[in-house]
Design goal:
The complex is a heterodimer of chains A (297) and B (402). Chain A contains ten helices and eight strands. Chain A has 297 residues and is α/β, with parallel strands linked by helices. Chain A has two domains: 167 residues, Rossmann fold (3-Layer(aba) Sandwich); 111 residues, Rossmann fold, CATH 3.40.50. In chain A, the strands form two sheets. In chain A, strands 2-1-3-4 form a four-stranded parallel beta sheet, covered by helices on one side. Chain A has a four-stranded parallel beta sheet with strand order 6-5-7-8, with helices on both faces. By secondary structure, chain B is mostly beta strands. Chain B has one domain: Porin (Beta Barrel), CATH 2.40.160. Chain B has a 16-stranded antiparallel barrel. The longest helix of chain B has 23 residues. The N and C termini of chain B lie far apart (72 Å). The chains are: A alpha/beta (297), B mainly beta (402). At the A-B interface, helix 3 and helix 4 of A face strand 7, strand 8 and strand 9 of B.
Amino acid sequence: MKKLLFALSLLLSSQTHAALNVFACEPEWAALTQELAGDKASVYTATGPLQDPHRVEARPSLIAKARRADLVVCTGAELEVAWLPVVLRESGNAALVPGSAGYLEVAQFVKMLEVPTRLDRGDGDVHAGGNPHIQTDPRNFLPIADALSKRLAQLDTSNATYYQQRLAAFDQQWRAAIAKWEAQAAPLKGVQIVVQHKGFPYLSDWLELIEVTALEPKPGMEPSAAHLSQVLNTLQKQPAKMVVRAAYQNARPSEWIADRAHIAAVELPYTVGGSDKAKDLYGLFDDTIAKLLTGSK
Amino acid sequence: MRKQISTRAAIAALLFQSATAMASSVPTDNAFNPAFSLILSGLYGQLQQTPSAATGFAMAPAPGHEQGFNLGESEMGISASIDPQFRGAATLALDPAGGVSVENAFVQTTALGDGMNLKFGRFFSGLGYLNEQHAHAWDFVDQPLVYATLWENQLSEDGVQFKWLAPTDTFIELGAEMGKGRGFPGTERVKNGSGAGVFFAHIGDDIGIEHSWRVGASLHQTQRVDAESTDVPDLAGNAVTNLFTGDSQTSGLDFVWKYSPNGNVRNSYVKFQAEYFRRKETGDLTYDTADAGANVSDTFSNTQSGFYVQSVYQFMPRWRVGARYDRLDSGIAQVGALNAGNVISNYAYTPTRTTLMLDYSPSEFSRLRAQFANDQSRQGLKDNQFFVQYIMSLGAHGAHSY
């Protein structure tokens, strides 16, 4: 009995230790939440940097974590459509019902790119709301941080001032970092690249990279041998400096092209934890720019 | 006058503005359309034997296979939030021979909170691991033998399901169902109260980011009333029709383990699963109920069981192989004295089946599959079965459960 009581008290104390339990769908939002909430929140990350966030399973562990969360922070724009609805439904957590204060889709706060003009699965796995890989442009983090901070304050009013201070500090530091990255990335302007998955429009938009073509014939479809040789043809007419992929993507198609077209294959961290150096949000972009600069040489 | 004109112009401009604003978000009836999906599937079957029940399981239904080309089950799914409290979902199965049957039609609460979920209507029972999965999500063309014989592929119930998820880091879920008892082994009948009940518990978690698992236990109980089984072999070597009335109690264990390098299921993964069910039936059996039949009634009880183990391996994106082993135990029945000379109590045969599968998924929405099975579920009727199948999904692509 004593043991049981001890276990129960442990359970309750772990629940009340941090003010807010946050369930972040992707590592970048977990990192941002941690920046903005410090020790006022305990953050759980639902997907790892080497997992394709489109294709995660609604595992029992995710459902159990969502059960106790006060806030779920996700990209939205249908990125998590294959697993999040089941996780939220099965969790039986009324606080996380889409539309309530505990549910935050951050894609709504940024300008979406590649919003399809027609919706047809013949075009591959397109997202009606636009390309969901918004985390590759650091400028997107500013409005998202603002919205996330307000949401934290709304859910945890007693620490509202604290969240406000952390937001102000983050905002200032982040703007300075963007200026630094833009200066470093100046030589990348107008550089032609090939992407494996159409996952970099925001990065290209920010750094003014030019995407020549993609290895996936249609979004979400594995690159086929026939399509890869087509890409090779395109590259002969329109040479690119490098082929870019996210850390979670299969390396083979990129390397196949890189070998034959004699260009660099660059694996970008894509999210926090996606490479050894991408330990936090700052490291993510430090490393992204460094890798692109190396690839463009 | 001039002022009037300018006001009119202003109004016109306003109207025009609101008209253009509306053009981008016209509130039509269409806007609230539910998610709609359609699964198209079809099958080619090459069998050496005509389908029939496994030896020793003639008192259970035998949802066998069809030979040649046949349209599999096409299913149409519709789901949407009803209001802030409820969500509704229906799956209609389109029968190849024509006609539509209601596979699922249920309402689910969305805002009970505290880990509680209530579901009512017609739904697949939450027992076992495979029972809740729709045919398009199966890893093989058919269900394991133990599901085919003990649950007529899947237990579907008209009733109420209550689930509670514990507020713990480890996934611990408890569930209870009460229903009409329409799905086998229940017998549909007109009466007040509940005809069948189910309890289940699931525990699951991750080990690192690469491994995940879930174990479960379930219990099903129903009363069978005048359950008729035809073509049951008897000791004299005839095929007769019997009636059974009594209690049916089934317990089950299920286990799933999945492994994926770096947790990246898109590239490759291994899934291993096993389930065991054991059913005890106690009651009265009426032997040979045909018009000119013997019509002898006496006590009858039997315990039957079965299990399967299977594994699916996605060795590269889009390609998977799978293997499954099935086994049944028809038990040794306790037959009352009056029927001791009529009813077979011990078939002394162990039905087994070994199945291999290869499938290819050009995208998330399409799958092509080939399957080979060495079926020894019927004594003296060894069957090498070969299948080719397609499964295509159109429209809304709902999320899959674990």
